[in-house]
Amino acid sequence: MSRYFAVLLLLALPGIATAHTFQLSVVENSVCGTGDSVHNTGNGTAPYPDGSICVENGGLADTNVARLTNTGGDSASGNGTATLNNSFGIDAAVVADAFIFNSEYQELEVSYLLTFDIDTNGSDPWVLTLDHDVLGLLALHGDGTLSAVGTQDNGHAHVSTVVLSGDVSTSLLSDTAFNDNPSNNGKSSLAFSDGATGLVVASGTGDTTLNVSIDFTLDAFSNDGCSGFICSSASGGEDAAVLFGIDDASGLGDVDADEYGVWGRAVGPDGYNSLWKLSIAPVGCGNGLLDSGEECDDGNLLPNDGCSPTCQFEQCGDGVLQAGEECDDGNVLPNDGCSEFCVAEFCGDGILQTGLGEQCDDGNMFNFDGCSSTCQDEVVLVPSASTPALFVIATLLATLGLWPLLLRARRT
Q1: How much is the pTM?
Q2: Could you tell me if 283 and 96 are in contact, meaning their C-beta atoms sit under 8 angstroms apart?
């Protein structure tokens, strides 16, 4: 089965020729415990020695096991153009295997402190992004025979939210539990997964130390038998396990990778996987950091995206025509040909703009309706029985644009 891995990359951008160093140190603070009921570890919780097995062994039919391993703690340095790698990895699993009249519980509280020492020669800005995911299986396996009588009691498997805290704060996976009672030697399971990509989790300038805690819990409960009017001792219990990068926690085949296909889960990378990317950014507009004199910095030098190539906000009234604007005259004043919303103002738009010389604006460009096609007041003549000839002449003169002749005629 593939192992959990975490790779951290230090990518220096062109123009940075000085050396940088990047170092990861790991402290493991996990604990495990066993008991006879859910969340009861009264039989003792002890510091968990990394790479070893936490086990309560009452015989082959009564074994609780937790396993946890990690890799990492490397360091690297470079001249600003090399790709630097630091890796860290975790695999974990728990299994509980009860016998008749003897329930069993196994818990593993996983806890690591990661310390990242970043040396950027004292002044270079940096950005830390994170891709991470979790993948695993909550599994139950009946420990009885095909001929067993009675109903086996529910087993339980559980994984908590994976929490990152400290100088980086984020989480993955809702707290997930699985309860079931597959009959006799039946099997049932629940796969769990979650992920996030491209999270900007920290940024800064100059030499830095980051402390990040990774914490989550795996636990499994194997019930002690069956219920019903008649219960056969051959019914056994429910073997319960959480597979989180290790596929056979006990080494006894209680719940192992051979059963993945039965459960509809392909054997593949699982556990908690992460990819940390530390980029040294150039100083100035476009580096994704808000530097002195900048109103915004969206990590590029492209116009028309809300933040200009000079890292100033793009908005109506800045004098630059942007997507969605019909005009931009450098102000947010109405009545000057471009509205406060950067919409063109014109005769026929239904808004009276005296600053544009309009006497009226009836929302159209027609004549003979009281407001002309040039948004000037019109004198509308209404025909009558006594002046039919005058109305015809007036209409003809208006059509030809000869209103002055008409007005001169009226005065005489």
Answers
A1: 0.63
A2: no
